[in-house]
UniProtKB/TrEMBL annotation:
Species name: Roseofilum reptotaenium AO1-A
Pfam families, sorted: Ank_2
SUPFAM superfamilies found in the cross-reference section: Ankyrin repeat
ANK repeat intervals: 145-177
Organism classification: Bacteria, Bacillati, Cyanobacteriota, Cyanophyceae, Desertifilales
Name of the protein: Uncharacterized protein
Coiled coil location: none
InterPro entries documented for this protein: Ankyrin_rpt, Ankyrin_rpt-contain_sf
Keywords: ANK repeat, Repeat
Highest taxon in the source lineage: Bacteria
PANTHER family named in the record: ANKYRIN REPEAT AND PROTEIN KINASE DOMAIN-CONTAINING PROTEIN (PTHR24198), ANKYRIN REPEAT-CONTAINING PROTEIN-RELATED (PTHR24198:SF165)
Length: 223
């Protein structure tokens, strides 16, 4: 566990309290913001947030801008932005999300940005997912648990997101190698999402998954 300085915790508290004058004072003390990874468990968010993420959680673009401007190294700034994009995506905050995207350097990794897509899907914002698609993210990226963005949207049960992702070029026939038959169609059936099943079924060519999904959605296979 890292040992955080008093200055680090003071900045977090200043952000939490939206104390702009205190934030500016701490920054002017020339503390090394590039290494400020201080984070606290936030009950409202139900997760750990660092200083920049807390500003995003507060939906305060002014504070976000002040903090990011103080980080002079573009690579480190991008790292904080990527972490904060996750929070904005989960909250479904489109304006904040776009503000953060606009703050990225020109050398940001589209692959890193692709991982934000999972949070955007579970946040349920079509607009944020569209922003990521327009940025050229990898629509068929495999997350560490074996699912693709399409599988995540299918599991969630959001037909609009499923259609958006398919229309963006998602491969409907990818199967989660860690769980047989659980492609997007199978997940729709397992979770009882009839509308998604009806939409995906004509698009899927894997006969085994089609049979599994049909039997499941028909109630032949009981989970």
């Amino acid at each position: 566990m890292e040992n955080f300085t008093t200055e680090q915790s003071q900045l977090y508290e200043a952000v939490k309290n939206r104390n702009l004058q205190r934030i500016q004072t701490i920054i002017e003390q020339e503390c090394n913001l590039q290494k400020w990874a201080y984070e606290v468990y936030d009950d409202q968010f139900d997760g750990f947030l660092n200083t920049v993420q807390k500003a995003v959680h507060l939906r305060d673009k002014r504070i976000i801008g002040i903090l990011l401007q103080a980080i002079s190294n573009p690579k480190i700034r991008d790292e904080y932005i990527f972490m904060s994009l996750d929070v904005a995506a989960i909250l479904g905050e489109v304006d904040i999300f776009q503000h953060l995207v606009n703050s990225l350097s020109s050398n940001f990794s589209k692959r890193d940005l692709s991982y934000v897509l999972n949070h955007a899907i579970w946040g349920g914002s079509e607009k944020i997912v569209s922003i990521l698609i327009d940025l050229g993210i990898h629509i068929n990226i495999i997350f560490e648990w074996g699912e693709t963005p399409l599988m995540a949207a299918s599991r969630k049960g959001d037909i609009d997101l499923v259609k958006l992702i398919v229309e963006a070029g998602a491969n409907v026939n990818i199967i989660n190698e860690e769980s047989p038959f659980t492609g997007a169609l199978g997940l729709a059936a397992i979770n009882g999402h009839q509308d998604i099943y009806d939409y995906l079924c004509p698009l899927v060519s894997n006969e085994e998954e089609q049979e599994f999904a049909y039997n499941t959605i028909s109630g032949i296979i009981k989970e």
